[in-house]
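Researcher: Can you fold this with EPZ in place?
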Amino acid sequence: MDKFFIHGGAHLRGTVSISGSKNSSLPILAATLLTRERCVIHRVPDLSDIRYMLEILRYLGADVSFSAGTVTVEARKVGWEAPYDLVRRMRASVCVLGPILARCGRSKVSLPGGCVIGDRPIDLHLRGLEALGTRITLSKGYVVAETSALTGTRLSLRGPHGSTVLGTDNVMMAACLARGTTIIEDAALEPEVADLARFLRAMGARIHGEGTGCLEIEGVEELHGAEHTVISDRIEAGTFAVAAAIVRGEILLENAPSEHMGSIIEALRQAGASVEEEKNGLRVQAGDPLRPFRLRTGTYPGFPTDMQAQFCALAVTVPGRSEIADEVFPNRFMHISELKRMGAHIDLRGNVAVIDGIPRLSGAPVMASDLRASAALVLAGLQAENTTTVSRVYHIDRGYERIDAKLRAVGANIERRP
Ligand code: EPZ
């Protein structure tokens, strides 16, 4: 397993090119199962989560190729079972459930189980599919879904923590091939859901209302192949923006999706960083001094839970008291104990991290755990004195395309060693 060796203190300067969105690519790749015709998807990031989804599509019978950011999929026939040893390694693979069901009339997908950021239930997914006329049974860790005919209806996807991103994706994809019209109330507003809706429309689906919370889908007989370019990754962009702030540097985030980053930009400005929109990206410069801040995650357009760990890393380096609460994944604080090993002063009170920032962290051996927690450790290492070694960087490779190479290109002293 690879490790990162980071020698902190370098001021980052330069340009980072932002890749296509992981969380947009994954459901769009699943949606290619809805047609037997060829689909071509551009700007797909080369990540282990992506390669993993392609492995699942191949297992289900699709012809798949991936080169230079472009994925081609032709699912002339589709199997209907996604086995445990494929699904368990990536929770997002649950988004093949809707497309397989719509294509085959039945689907057997392993329950994803939990992960380090907390319980990952799919009750809202299943309730939505049941509303479309699906019989759902759970047996031996599998979800078995069967339907004689998916039928349009009105349903809500509201849950205890707001809506569900992948749940909205699953139900929207199934509804595309249902008989009649489906109204999804309390649909997720995330830009990645809107990107999927655009791809489905390019395939011939009749979808309106993405980004409004109420999706209207008029079912069609079948969908045809389509070509699509994935939106930029707002979380990768946000992560590099925090990198600029934490080491008091200046980075131009080329191709950053500024229009999807309102709450992230607001949080950076609250911390005293300057963020300027330019024609080909977002320029982020650390303020001097940075200020403590208070953040609370929420569903889009609220502050994203996927940026919570990164802002904890920033807060531990800003003198003064900051408070960061995660309302979406209340247990998503795996990074706290590792940041404390680097000298951070953090008091975790339920789902609120109370942080008293210090001028300089001290390098230490730390361990990656979940994708965004691991990114936070890399950011902390960039600021810490001496050397920080981050082990199990395969967690980071799941969601960031060559993060070490991109950081070195703007002056970071980071090395990947086996
Ligand atoms: C998506 O996960 C993202 N993953 C996550 O990013 C992101 O953190 C999350 O949305 C929230 O924005 C992908 O898009 C591949 P949810 P998803 O269903 O769809 C509860 C990353 O780091 N819930 O929107 O699985 C759930 O427990 C990943 O890139 C139910 O109660 O998240 C959570 O509290 C991590 N029942 C809240 O809703 C359900 O049936 C939001 O979950 C489904 C979810």
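Model: Folded with EPZ in place. The chain has two domains: 3-19+232-417, 22-219.
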